[in-house]
Amino acid sequence: MKVSVDPMVCEANAVCVGLAPEVFDLNDDDELTILLPEVPEDQADRVRHAVRSCPKAALSLDE
After folding, report:
1. CA distance to 1, 33, per residue, from 16 (Å)
2. What is the DSSP secondary-structure string of the chain?
3. Distance, CA of 35 to CA of 23 (rounded, Å)
4. What is the chain's Cα-based Rg?
């Protein structure tokens, strides 16, 4: 599974960071960084939840 972000849509609300901090991070410029684009199996459910919870629908999954 791969996760990606549309930087033009992302508002750096950090919901994903709170739900899956091992996968998502905000840099000093409030830009979302995906630490693990290839999502480990043990993080899959948390990442799915983060994608569904994004208030701007800026995240997507390719399963």
Report:
1. 16, 11
2. -EEEE-TTT-----HHHHH-TTTEEE-TTS-EEES-SB--GGGHHHHHHHHHH-TT--EEEE-
3. 5
4. 10
What tens digit of pLDDT does each residue of 47-63 get? 999 999 999 999 999 99
pTM greater than 0.85: yes
The per-residue pLDDT for range 22-36, each reduced to its tens digit, is 999 999 999 999 999
Alpha-carbon gap, residue 40 to 38, rounded angstroms: 6
